[in-house]
Amino acid sequence: MKKVASSLCLSSRASTSAPGLIIFCTCFYIQKLEAAQFRVIGSAQPITAVVGQDILLPCHLSPRMSAENMEVRWFRNNFEAYVHLYHDKRDQYGQQIPEYRGRTELLKDSIADGNVPLKILNIKYSDEGQYNCFLHDGSTTAGTVLDLNVIVLGSVPLIAVEDYQEGGIRIVCRSAGWFPEPKMIWRDPSGQHLPSLPKTKAQQDNGLFETETAIVIKEYRNSKLSCWIRDKYLSQGKESTISISDPFFPQMNTSMVTLIFTLVVLLGLFVLTIYLFKLRRMGFSPSSDRYTYSVFPLIVSYVGDLLRQLGWRRHAICPGLGRTAPPVEEVKVTLDPDTAHPELVLSQDQRSVTWTETKQQLPNNPERFDAERCVLGCEGFTSGRHCWQVEVGEGGYWAVGVARESVKRKGWICFGPEEGIWGVQCWGDLFIVLQGPDRRPLTLDRAPRRVWVYLDCARRQVSFFDSDTKTLIFTFPLPSLTQDRIQPWLWLRDSRVQLRFPH
Questions:
Q1: Which of 81, 220, 277, 384 lies 20 to 30 angstroms, CA to CA, from 491?
Q2: Which residues pair with 82 in a beta bridge?
Q3: Are strands 374-376 and 430-433 parallel, antiparallel or unpaired?
């Protein structure tokens, strides 16, 4: 067709008659249309962007030609409501979608070569979907469609030693704030994947995923392991590591088991003898029903309390540093008045704190918290093993934990490890682990009235125990402590509650 049209045009140029002039004009128009034909090329593969970052959506003409005098329209579902519009050699913003105002830029460095990529700033979760790149030069129209995948990178995985299970140690890894649902795996020091228990997930109201996986470690050779979580598209990952030392894996031979069993039996007989003697003095007869129904509940109660005591000592006295571990130092904590929020009132001995709605007239020094009702302890640690007890009463609104010495003091603080705070919080009827924006409630029979805080700088972890039940509440891994001290930390916003360090 092109060759025929060209020959007709050549013959018409040699004629000055009216029919020749008509043929010439027709051929000239056909040639113009042929010269203006083009294709618009984008990306055959989906483009992936991370929330908060910038992304470039590619689009260019083929064959290469100038797009300076064309209309370039980027839109999604609605042609009229555009993401970005270039027309009459300038950007047009009249009908731009409000969500994109101030966030788009058509790069024009190579527009003379037909290259018209769109830059979107500060990608949002709602930006995910299809984008149309449409070009029009007055006679020819062409376009292409691109897919944009948006990912949200969640929190650094949090590892906690929870309990003994199936003859091993149950270790749980949790992370929140991901989209789409991430992949979470356990790895040994060589990078090999370790088998884990079935993963649990939950999609929150904002569409982000919270995921959890657990592993049961039964052998000391797997004592150092990492929890690795990565997104679906870019495989960008975050990782946390934990080390479990050999005292968690007692190697018992047959003779040792026999000895322990014998000691337990003897202890049980001793306790039973004492209770029998007491019951006889109270007038109970061994043959009476009252005697039967009184003895066994007492024995069961005593054995249960003994097991709880053993569980407490397993964590607090032998937490995995080996038999040569240094002793645990019980710290007498005093609160630092220079850090206390103006609504927090310290006792004269600086061992307790209460909250009042009336702000005290205190100097706004750099160390003082001015928005969050927090206070730090005077003591700071970078090594050793330390513990202290906090009396918190029943219920209310309070938090107990530790914080970096360099923790943010001014303005709003999102309590969690990323801000340098590791703690647990009572929020009315809920008991919460402070993990940043996505706080995870714990299932407890009741909020503790007294909390032991156990800081192990060598193993880089902090644990919280219920003082009354002697049970582990939660364990946080800590980062390197070489650059910053760790200090006791309290938060209080309840006039009915007094947080106190007992003498």
A1: 384
A2: 75, 96
A3: unpaired
Q: Hey, CA dihedral for 293, 295, 301, 307, is it positive or negative?
A: negative
The DSSP H or E segment spanning 9 is helix 2-13
Question: pTM here?
Answer: 0.44
Decide if 74 contacts 83 (C-beta within 8 A): yes
State the sign of the Cα–Cα–Cα–Cα dihedral 182, 187, 193, 197.
negative
Q: SS3 for 242-281, per residue?
A: EECCHHHCCCCCHHHHHHHHHHHHHHHHHHHHHHHHHHHH
CA distance 290 to 280: 12
Whole-angstrom Cα distance, residue 485 to residue 487? 6
Question: Does the structure show a pLDDT above 70 at 186?
Answer: yes
Indicate the average pLDDT of the chain: 80
Instruction: List, in order, residues 6 or more apart from 209 with CB less than 8 Å away.
Output: 154, 176, 177, 178, 179, 180, 181, 182, 201, 202, 203
**Quick one: DSSP state of residue 222?**
G
Residue 447 tokens, joined: 């909020």
- Average of per-residue pLDDT across 74-85: 93
Among 160, 467, 460, which residue's Cα sits nearest to residue 330? 467
User: Which run of H or E residues covers position 476?
Assistant: strand 471-477
- Tell me the per-residue pLDDT of 438-465, one tens digit each, with 9 for 90 and over: 667 787 777 899 999 999 988 889 999 9
Is 147 within 8 Å of 49 (Cβ atoms)? Answer: no
- The predicted pLDDT at position 233 comes to 81
CA distance 296 to 282: 16
For tokens 């006889």, name the residue.
Answer: 280
